[in-house]
UniProtKB/TrEMBL annotation:
Organism: Stylosanthes scabra
Identification of the protein by name: Uncharacterized protein
Highest taxon of source: Eukaryota
Length: 212
């Protein structure tokens, strides 16, 4: 429903997701429970939700309230994926893939199809065959956490440069919030993905401006 052609359904879906994430966050703080304990915030589901939210940026947005909720949802979802992958930070993709059940693999594959990027295809290829990438700037395949989060950040950056100022604002605000919630080492790890679109806008290569 996050990617439904009808704008009203997309808008209501964003609001429902925001309510769900708020309840999960409140429950986590009160009970100190893990994201894994909730239906929509299991790793494969949350990654698919995060991917759908990022891809929704390609569609027209309705108003500032929707923009604020989109930012909140994206930040929660990507930080959630980052947090859930904390225990897998030193696991390479083939080993990670082997731990998943088939329905979890299917969700990841759906998410990679939505991302439609060389990095996503590389991740699938590496997890299934452990082959070496010929990309000039391949993801760190020894860090599955980085691979998954980087795919989302890069997708957002590409969309920000292609769409209007409102989408760019959501992406850059999300970047700032995400970077403030991860460690300094993680900021260094994701720095290229976040700074490249910002650099292109600041230097005028995108041909666009973002207020503030």
């Amino acid at each position: 429903m996050l990617l439904h052609p009808h704008s009203w359904i997309r808008s209501r879906s964003v609001r429902l997701i925001a309510l769900y994430f708020a309840r999960v966050n409140a429950s986590k703080e009160n009970n100190q429970s893990s994201l894994r304990h909730y239906y929509l915030t299991s790793l494969s589901r949350l990654f698919l939700v995060a991917t759908s939210l990022c891809c929704q940026l390609k569609m027209p947005l309705l108003n500032d309230a929707d923009s604020n909720l989109m930012t909140q949802n994206i930040v929660f979802a990507i930080c959630g994926v980052h947090s859930l992958m904390e225990q897998s930070v030193h696991i390479d993709p083939p080993a990670f893939w082997s731990t998943l059940e088939q329905h979890e693999k299917d969700r990841f594959l759906r998410a990679f199809d939505l991302l439609d990027s060389r990095k996503g295809r590389f991740f699938m290829h590496s997890t299934l065959t452990s082959s070496v990438s010929t990309d000039n700037n391949p993801p760190d395949v020894h860090n599955t956490q980085y691979v998954l989060v980087s795919l989302l950040l890069r997708k957002m950056g590409k969309i920000a440069l292609q769409k209007d100022a409102i989408q760019m604002g959501i992406v850059f605000n999300s970047y700032g919030n995400i970077m403030s919630r991860v460690t300094q080492d993680d900021c260094m790890r994701y720095g290229h993905d976040v700074l490249l679109p910002l650099y292109k806008v600041c230097e005028g290569y995108a041909g666009k401006e973002v207020d503030g």
